[in-house]
Design a protein that fits this description.
15 helices, 398 residues, 5-stranded mixed sheet, Dna Ligase, domain 1, DNA-directed DNA polymerase activity, alpha+beta, DNApol_IV, metal-binding, DNA damage, 14 strands, 19% strand, DNA polymerase, domain 1, Alpha-Beta Plaits, DNA repair
């Protein structure tokens, strides 16, 4: 087998709940649920009782009546994430962040200075615990995909090294759900055909996998099952999309409620665009229905923009078109992504400049929120709403 196991995937354990337990010693060892109306995160003590992320709060409390329910503190989680990523970057310059609580690290060039990849991983875990007060699981492998699987298998608070000569022994017996990109719908398709392990998928011809799962998905998953993943750790990659999503639980949501959630997401993402001097070309609506099947809808604007009004109008059109399906199937998650991003200084402005699109208002609102806080200005439609609708938005995990 070519190559060496030099890629680390580091993933903080039950991140939001772990931060709560770190900051409140009385919560340690107890089942903790972050979020009331919908579970945003659960400690391992709560997970052992069946509590899962995105579960409705009532169901979670029925499964675990002695759980301590705490409100989310997104600023505390962001601060903890920054501290951990500083440790990552102090370990190696080759860090590729995936989300607020996980990253890939390439450590192959550190052998003379810091020892073997396993030794680097051991010290990384020790530093994160000592300096950030958090447990972290690390997988070490030859490829990013295998490293990610290894960290998941090692949880909680574990370290697993997959040496090249035992990759097949490690991967092939695992359930197909361990493959990066296999969700409930894809898993069900494979299960109906008697394909339950990675090894069974690897035995198929690539054309057969493509016929079952679609050309792109089939080719991707078949390649992973056969241990093909040539992607390097890319520390220079600039995100081509940004997004946030809201888990909604299982109760019915009215169009007005969904619109409130949509505007909250758009307001926040549009401000992030402007803060980063980026423009968006495509708005993507992400839905998860009551049966947990996922769907996406997208719309591309004529000229890249950072205008809240323009982006909200596109997102509302997409959501309105999806209302009949939502009414029939229910909805458990609503998300928005802005993709095909470009730098704002690369766009030639059109003349005459028209301020009627709200650009001046966007600038004023951004300035107020920067000085007085994100909650200092709110839309009238957000007032006197169910507090559950005001819960923090979750960053997407890519």
């Amino acid at each position: 087998m070519r190559g060496e196991a030099t890629v680390l995937h580091a993933d903080l354990d039950a991140f939001y709940a772990s931060v709560e337990q770190r900051d409140a010693p009385a919560l340690r060892g107890r089942p903790v649920i972050v979020g009331g109306g919908v579970v945003l995160a659960a400690s391992y003590e709560a997970k052992a009782r069946g509590v899962r992320t995105a579960m409705g709060g009532r169901q979670a409390r029925e499964l675990c009546p002695d759980a301590v329910v705490v409100p989310p503190r997104m600023e505390a989680y962001s601060e903890a994430s920054r501290a951990v990523f500083a440790i990552f970057r102090d370990t190696t310059p080759l860090v590729e962040g995936l989300s607020i609580d996980e990253a890939f690290l390439e450590v192959g060039g550190l052998r003379r200075l810091a020892g073997t990849p396993e030794q680097v991983a051991v010290r990384l875990r020790e530093r994160v615990l000592a300096e950030a007060g958090l447990a972290i699981s690390v997988g070490v492998a030859r490829t990013k995909f295998l490293a990610k699987v290894a960290s998941a298998v090692s949880k909680p608070n574990g370290l697993l090294v997959v040496e090249p000569e035992r990759e097949q022994e490690f991967l092939l017996p695992l359930p197909v759900e361990r493959l990066w990109g296999v969700g409930a719908v894809t898993a069900e398709k494979l299960h109906r055909l008697g394909i339950r392990t990675v090894g069974q998928l690897a035995e198929l011809e690539e054309a057969t996998a493509e016929r079952i799962l679609g050309r792109a998905t089939g080719a991707h998953l078949h390649a992973l099952a056969r241990l093909r993943d040539p992607r390097p750790v890319d520390s220079t990659r600039r995100r081509s999309s940004i997004g946030s999503q809201r888990a909604l639980g299982n109760r019915a949501r009215s169009p007005d409620e969904l619109d409130v959630i949509l505007t909250q997401i758009i307001d926040r993402l549009a401000r992030r665009l402007r803060d980063g001097d980026r423009l968006c070309r495509t708005v993507v609506l992400r839905l998860r229905f009551g049966d947990y099947e996922k769907a996406t809808r997208s719309r591309t604007v004529r000229i890249p923009t950072d205008s809240t009004a323009v982006l909200l109008a596109s997102a509302r059109d997409l959501l309105t078109a999806a209302h009949p399906e939502i009414a029939a199937r229910g909805i458990t998650l609503l998300g928005i992504s802005f993709s095909h991003l470009t730098r704002s200084d690369t766009l030639q402005p059109e003349l005459p400049i028209d301020w009627s699109d709200g650009a001046r208002l966007d600038s004023v609102l951004d300035a107020v929120r920067t000085r007085f806080g994100a909650a200092s200005v709110s839309r009238a439609t957000h007032l006197d709403r169910d507090p559950g609708l005001s819960a923090p938005l979750l960053p997407e995990h890519e």
